[in-house]
Amino acid sequence: FAPWADPEAKPLIRFQNVTKRFGTFTAIDNLSLDIYEREFFALLGPSGCGKTTMMRMLGGFENPTEGRIELAGKDISGVPPNKRAVNMMFQSYALFPHLTVWDNIAFGLRRDSKPKPEIEARVAEMLKLTRLEKFAKRKPHQISGGQRQRVALARSLAKAPKLLLLDEPLGALDKKLRQDTQFELMDIQEKTGTTFVIVTHDQEEAMTVASRVAVMDEGRLMQVATPDRIYESPNSIYVADFIGEVNIIEGTATPDGEETYRIDWADGQEPIRATSARSFATGEKCALAIRPEKVTISADRPAEAVNAVQGKVLDIAYLGNISTYHVELPSGTVIKAQTANTRRISRRSFTWDDPVWLSWTVTGGVLLAE
Ligand code: ATP
After folding, report:
1. Which value does ipTM take for this structure?
2. CATH number at residue 337
């Protein structure tokens, strides 16, 4: 499933050079983006980057100041929210407290004066989809938070929108329930084939559920790609740093063989080597981004290691399945190395102040422009 890679595929949603200003403030800055049918698309970025504004423009609660937004090939500027094949599920769920689960789900269908048998069939289908059959007669205060979340989802899908917008849909749930619900959400999205656009500040959540993730900053798209590409091949220090943990080593690049560079880094360490598909000129400033799990920690310098530096253990974060070691180099630079705790003993492998070696391969990091 990769419609974005198919030049023939027609996007369901198309932002064309969209700018949104509030007074003199530019919330969305000349942004273009295509989202395809059946995608589970995540908008991710720090507070204030413009995620909600994007959603509100899709929902019809705001119009672009410049540019256009198309839904299934038609310009939707000026089309009111209730006239769009778009629905929005709010973080607060906004369920009607005095109505039963069944009536909450039926609400939009009744308002559209659908025939009774159609409403009954559709509500039954939604109750089954969200595993709420047993709770149909209860009121929102008589069910759990997770069940309420499912009622809100069932209600937003009842009218079979082309596009469902989800604003922090799992924000009110605790971590464990949230993780289970993520899989449920993916399952429901797949079964209905509805395009989902989710706003979340939780990067793990975005990476878990989404077919593609857009990382935003100050009203602009920094990178739009599949979760694994965003993580493995970030296009900037900003994206590398925003998603997951990363070590950034700044230095200057010198070509050293095909797609390979020698990097002289600022603090007097032995040069390191890295491959890069992007080319760098001799002496060009660069930054190597390396994920902590790509850095191996050992007592001795591994014989075959191309990149190895010596330091001492400054801090250890034991997280059960993994441990993260903060290792200080003589220059004061701190590098994080993560080990998978597959064996019990690994927990006690190294302790504070232990002298250690850190090593990584030439392909272990991503070379970025500074
Ligand atoms: P959060 O994660 O905190 O919800 P966000 O990425 O969703 O943030 P938006 O709500 O889209 O951010 O806001 C983007 C920027 O636009 C913010 O700086 C915000 O203050 C500004 N903004 C949003 N709505 C308005 C408005 N109606 N009038 C003026 N400024 C606004």
Report:
1. 0.95
2. 2.40.50.140
